[in-house]
User: Which sequence fits this backbone?
């Protein structure tokens, strides 16, 4: 409507889009075969019992549904992170045997790394080692949370890396707000059932305002309180 368009234009006039702050957004990891690379704790323990070295390439992983407003669920699953820089046959023979159990279709899949036992290439794996922001793609509200642990995220969610000069608590306070929820309803596309899709193309267009120091600190302090409450 004309009224909503005027409100959207007013929101746009008060802020800069995320890329102008140096923010980087990436879709979560596409493994190439979740049935093989995503395992539960029982299978993780089994693989580590075969060879303790396997623990070096098995990490907690989240899905989009695990991302919530200001917090994320504790990971229940794990990803076998056999990236292209790993010679799996030489360094992790028991993992090769595990992967072989998925048959020729796994070996011949099109989405794979240098060797059929390597994960589909991902250029930003190191970003998961540092502090970042996660969120779910499908949601009617913002589901942004800060993750400081080395947790990985599948492609039903997104990862955002933030430069040091932009406070992450301040940023998710804005992104999780009802104002941005309204903004996204004006700009985003929806899924087949009408749920908003918080994809890179639309999230990167969200304008982030620069408030004065007192207003900035007020948002940061409030978000920190919310995060602490969610942890308990």
Assistant:
């Amino acid at each position: 409507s004309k009224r909503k368009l005027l409100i959207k234009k007013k929101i746009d006039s008060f802020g800069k889009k995320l890329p102008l702050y140096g923010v980087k957004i990436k879709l979560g990891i596409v493994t190439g075969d979740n049935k093989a690379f995503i395992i539960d704790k029982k299978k993780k323990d089994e693989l580590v019992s075969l060879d303790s070295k396997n623990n070096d390439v098995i990490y907690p992983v989240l899905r989009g549904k695990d991302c919530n407003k200001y917090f994320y669920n504790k990971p229940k699953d794990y990803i076998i992170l056999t990236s292209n820089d790993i010679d799996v046959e030489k360094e992790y023979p028991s993992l090769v045997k595990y992967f072989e159990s998925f048959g020729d279709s796994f070996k011949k899949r099109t989405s794979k790394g240098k060797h059929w036992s390597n994960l589909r290439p991902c250029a930003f794996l190191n970003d998961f080692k540092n502090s970042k922001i996660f969120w779910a793609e499908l949601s009617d509200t913002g589901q942004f949370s800060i993750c400081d642990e080395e947790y990985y995220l599948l492609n039903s969610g997104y990862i955002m890396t933030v430069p040091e000069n932009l406070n992450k608590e301040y940023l998710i306070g804005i992104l999780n707000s009802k104002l941005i929820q309204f903004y996204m309803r004006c700009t985003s596309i929806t899924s087949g059932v009408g749920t908003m899709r918080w994809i890179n193309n639309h999230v990167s267009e969200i304008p982030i305002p620069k408030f004065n120091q007192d207003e900035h600190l007020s948002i940061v302090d409030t978000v920190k309180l919310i995060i602490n409450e969610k942890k308990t």
